[in-house]
Amino acid sequence: MSKKEKFEQLFNEMFPKVKSFARKILQSEEDAEDIAQDVFVKLWNSPAVWEENENWNSYVYTMTRNHIYNYLKHKVVEQKYQQQTDPEDYDYYGSDDIHDQLYAKELRLLIKLTISRMPEQRRKVFCMSRQEEMSHAEIAEKLGISVRTVERHIYLALGELKEVLYLLFFLVAIE
């Protein structure tokens, strides 16, 4: 049996079960579909796990459970972030140190630049969420997209900002 045929067998046998398992925990059809797809992408990228092993059930369920836990942890972090105050509200300039003031100004400029360079839809969604303080459902309704798409745009926007900020902090640390 070829690698492709073996994976198809695994997929056909386990995908509906994995999706159902995730749906029971997450109470969301879309999230369950995403989790199941992510699990099988990871499996495809790890052929040693499924090519030699005939007992897929326990491994796949453990993998799914861990993926769901990570997803839920990410949701908690995202919710905490959303509850934080807008970075522009902080008093960056209260410091007497000129370097702190310059870094704060550079940081704000970098954030604005990063947001301005995002794809238009992502930028709209992110600004509606963070600046206009609209809920995901409100954004989805206003733009005619799904709530899951709104969440994905925000996730990607935060990822872009995180990358740029890590780079900035790395550069500041080596100075």
CATH architecture of the largest domain: Orthogonal Bundle
**Sheet with most strands:** none
Instruction: Determine the CATH topology of the largest domain.
Output: Arc Repressor Mutant, subunit A
Shape category? elongated
Classify the beta-strand content into a percent band: under 5%
Q: Considering DSSP H and I runs of 4 or more, what fraction of the residues is helical? A: over 70%
Low-confidence stretches: none
The Cα radius of gyration reads 21 Å
End-to-end distance = 57 Å
Topology pattern, helix = H, strand = E: HHHHHHHH
What is the mean pLDDT? 81
Domain unit count: 2
Number of strands: 0
Q: Helical segment tally?
A: 8
| Structural class by SSE content | mainly alpha
CATH class of the largest domain: Mainly Alpha
CATH homologous group name of the largest domain: Winged helix-like DNA-binding domain superfamily/Winged helix DNA-binding domain
Q: How would you portray this structure in words?
A:
With 175 residues, the chain is mainly α. The longest helix has 28 residues, at 56-83. Helix content is 79%, strand content 0%. α1 (3-26) packs antiparallel against α2 (29-44), α2 (29-44) crosses α4 and α5 packs antiparallel against α8. It has 2 domains: 3-83, Rna Polymerase Sigma Factor, Chain: A; 87-173, Winged helix-like DNA-binding domain superfamily/Winged helix DNA-binding domain (Arc Repressor Mutant, subunit A), CATH 1.10.10. The protein contains 8 helices and no strands.
